[in-house]
Amino acid sequence: MKIQPDNQKLIELAHYKMPFGKYKGRYLVQLPEPYLIWFQQKGFPQGKLGDLLKEMTEIKINGLEALIYKIQKDFPKQ
User: Fold this and answer.
1) In this predicted model, what pLDDT tens digit does every residue of 6-54 receive, in sequence order?
2) What count of other Cβ atoms lies within 10 Å of the Cβ of residue 13?
3) Residue-wise pLDDT tens digits, 66-76
4) Contact between residue 43 and residue 53 where contact means Cβ atoms under 8 Å apart
5) What 3-state DSSP class applies to 18?
6) Which residues pair with 27 in a beta bridge?
7) CB-side exposure of 76: number of CA atoms within 13 Å?
8) Handedness of CA 57, 58, 59, 63 (dihedral sign)
């Protein structure tokens, strides 16, 4: 069984910006890892933002931010 990433979801994640708080307007990939870990410990928001923050936390923990920056470059927001 071959596992394929959802390309559209990765593109959305790469271009999604934090809608509130200290880091409002920053891409999720630009959020500091300790901030994401704090959310993980306290509880992610419900809905789409929470799901994207969970995914970004895993990406950051595993050192895969370069993948997101490459997606931003190769697939500019339209």
Assistant:
1) 788 999 999 999 999 999 999 999 999 999 999 999 999 999 999 999 9
2) 21
3) 999 999 999 98
4) no
5) coil
6) 17
7) 1
8) positive
